[in-house]
Amino acid sequence: MDSRGNDGDSFRVRLSDGREKVLRLYFVDAPESAVRTYRNGETNEKRLDYQARDLGGLSRKRVLTIGQEAKARVRGLLAAETFQVATKEQEVFDSGRIYAFVRVQGGEKYLHELLVEEGLVRIYTEGASLPEGTSRMEQEKRLRKLERVAREAGRGAWRF
């Protein structure tokens, strides 16, 4: 469902039982899609710089472009079809968001893996064992391999 806070790794959804939740994907961090100034006067510019560094040393402008692409990709995937959510209800700090695994494309793909394959996120944040039992460590290895393939193919952030 549309929400101002939706981006490439966090988004508001309405579950089949009618409850609304804000989900945060395990394992990945999508770049910011805009420069923001918060109420306390701080900005997200340092975060953008970290994201840019981790995505191959991009400029701030290019990392914002990838953030916008990730946001649009996730919006399109979640709007186009039914998706499956698995969560342990683990809260992300005190944000009201909960970590989750989301399966898309008819349940064939995990969203976080697809975003890594497309070069739209960095591997960074909380990980967990997958619902079918794949260990956190094995999943991280898989994600690193997917990232390497994306980099070699020049996908997403790796095209610059």
Radius of gyration, taken over Cα atoms and rounded to an integer in Å: 15 Å
What are the secondary-structure elements, in order, as H or E?
EEEHHEEEHEH
Class from helix and strand fractions: alpha+beta
Strand percentage:
15-25%
Shape: globular
Quick one: biggest sheet? 5 strands, mixed
- What is the rounded distance between the termini? 31 Å
Task: Report the helical percentage.
Answer: 25-40%
The count of strands amounts to 7
Summed over residues and divided by their number, the pLDDT gives a mean of 94
Query: Helical segment tally?
Result: 4
Which residue ranges are poorly predicted, with pLDDT under 50 across at least 5 consecutive positions? Answer: none
Description:
The protein has 160 residues and is α+β, with helices and mostly antiparallel strands. Helix content is 35%, strand content 18%. It has helices at residues 45-54, 60-80, 111-117, 136-153, and strands at 10-14, 20-25, 28-29, 84-86, 97-104, 109-110, 122-123. Strands 1, 2, 4, 5 and 6 form a five-stranded mixed β-sheet that branches. A two-stranded antiparallel sheet has the order 3-7.
Topology:
Layout: E1 10-14, E2 20-25, E3 28-29, H1 45-54, H2 60-80, E4 84-86, E5 97-104, E6 109-110, H3 111-117, E7 122-123, H4 136-153
Parallel strand pairs: 2-5
Antiparallel strand pairs: 1-2, 3-7, 4-5, 5-6
